[in-house]
Every structure is written in structure tokens, then in C-alpha cells.
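Dear support,

We are seeing what looks like truncated structure output for some complexes. This example has two components. We would appreciate it if you could run it in full and send us the complete C-alpha cell output so we can diff it against ours.
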Amino acid sequence: MNWKQDRSGESPQMDLEPDLELAQALSHFKASMDAWSEAAYSRPRTAAKLAVRHSWRMVAVWSLGCLLAVGSLAGAGHEIYHRQQLAKLAAQKAAEQRAAAGRATAVQSGTQPSSAQSDKKAPAATTRKVSVGAQDSARSQDSARGQDEDLLATVDSDVSREVPAAMEPLAQLMNDNGTQ
Amino acid sequence: MRRRGASTKVMAAGTAVEPMTAVSAEDIAAQEFARIVETHRPQIFRFLLSSLRDVDLAETLTQECFLKAHRNWSHFRGDSSAMTWLMRIAINLQKDYWRNRRIQFWRQTRINAVDLDEASEWLPNGERNAEQQMLAREQVAQVWQAVKGLSERQRTVFLLRYVEERELSEIASATGLSEGTVKAHLSRALGRVRTELRGSR
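Here is the complete output from our reference environment:
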């Protein structure tokens, strides 16, 4: 070793001469360092593979995240659109109903004066047409209501027939006791 | 010095056979540099590994060292040996690294440095019995312990001397210190190792 060989050339007062134990420890230290360095230097490198795997994982995570974000945004958007459509339909229906009701009241209030004023023929004809239409619609509404009521009555009777009365078993027992 | 000699030889050969072009000079410089890398890379790596105790970091800084050397290869005048020149670059890179670590101490940086026990596990498989191996391992651990307590400059000088086996003049040239200062640092470092070894007894 160099430092062992040229020890004599160094100034003695600097205390650079290692004693036996120190020299042994230093030589072990160097041998250890050589072995470690050689093993680390010749080890297989997997950094590139790891980086690729890491990047794939990153891509997968990012795409999943983007997909989730887009999905939730689209869902929210669809829900809002759906609600708006429903509200629009409801408003339209309400407006129609209001218009029909208004027409019906107009007809009811307009028929009496139209019969009284017989000299104005044209307006009377139009009011007659409107009143006929209103009567038709009122008649159809009545018939629909009647059908609904019939249906409900049938369902009620069916249900009441199928479901046993709450006191039925007791009543049967009483009957049995009575016969005994 | 060696490099300058090689280029004149080539130039002389070039004039005899065909006029030397810039491309062939570049090729020769590249070949020469590749040879330097092949020869000195393990030593630079070993020095950085012993200084940092971090395999990945030592590899990164070794790469950076040779990259820097390649960039400045045309400025290398051959005043010192290529190894001393490379060592100087490696020492500067290491200094930069520690300075950056100190500046960015508040950041959560990844530290891969192995602990001293793990570093002392490395021993060549010589013809030694188990007891001798255990003794050697213990001594290596004590030296590591002492090295850990050294200042940055003392550690560099100590490792260059006792691991890389550099001459005092080379160490002085690589570190930019005078030989006297190098001796003083070595003396203190050895004193510390001695104390550590005696303290364990």
C-alpha cells in the first residue's frame, strides 16, 4: 500500500504513522470498501424497468382519475338537464291546464250574453264552437274520472277480499267453541 | 501530459499518410476519453460511495463527474494526472451536493445512505476464520464510526489517502489544499480513528 510504503518520507511530528492495530483496521476498512464498491458497481441495473413500470402506473392512475372526474361531471350535467326538462314539462302542463280552465270559465260566462244578443251572428257562432269544445273536454274529463273511480273501487274490493280480517282467526275459534 | 503526447503522435502520423481532419481528431479524443472513463470510473465511484454511503447517489455523481469531464476535456491541459483532475471534479460535485442538502434542509429529501452497521458488513471472503472475520468487521465498524465524526474536509483527505491510496501531493492537488494542511487533516483524522479503536477496548 502506498501510505505504508512512503511513511518514512513524512514528517514524524505529524503522527501519520499508523501503529499495528491502526494499520490493520485501515487495511480491513479498505478491503471492505473495495468489496462493497465492486459489488455495487457490478450489480444489475433495474432503474429503467422500474421507471417504465412507475410511469405505467402513473398513466393508469391518471386515466382512471380523469375517467372518474369526467363521469361524475357528465352524471351531474345529465341530472341537471333531466330536472330542467321535467320542470319545463310541468310548467307546460300547468300552463295548459290554466289555459283550459280559463277557456272553460270564459265559455261559462260567455254563453249567456251570446244567446241574449241574437243580432251578432258571427261572434255567437264562434262562442258556440268554443262552448262545444269545452263541453267535450269536460265530458272526457268526467269519463276519465269515472273510470279511475271504478278502477279504484275494484282494486279496493280485491284487496279487501284478499287480506284477511284482523279478527278472523279469533272469530273462527269462537265458531269452533260454539259448535263444541 | 500523456494526452498531449498522444495527439502529437497522431498528428505526425496524420501528416505522413493523409492530412488530419477535425473529425479524426475528435474521434481520437473520444477514444482517449472512453479509455479514461473505463480506467478511472470504478475508483471515482468507490471514492464517492465511501464519502456518501449511498449507492444510487454515488452512481449519479459518478455519471455527472464524467459528463463534466467530457464537456471540459478540451480544456484539460495535463498539468496533473487525469485521475487527480477527475478527483477534483468529484470532490467539487460532492461539495455542491452537501451545500444543496444544507440549503434545502427543510425539504423532505430522500436519503438512501446505508447505516454504519450495514456498511461494515462488507468484507472480502479471505482465508480467515469466523473469529478473525468478526474482529475485522468490528474494526471496520469502528473506522466507519470515526469517519462519520470527521469534518467534510478531513473525511475527504482520509478517504483519498487510506482508501484510494493517493500520494499527499495528489491529495493536495485534488483538494486545492497545501500539503501541510493535508497532513494536518490526516493527522487529526487518524487521531480520531485511534481514539475510536482504543475506546472500544
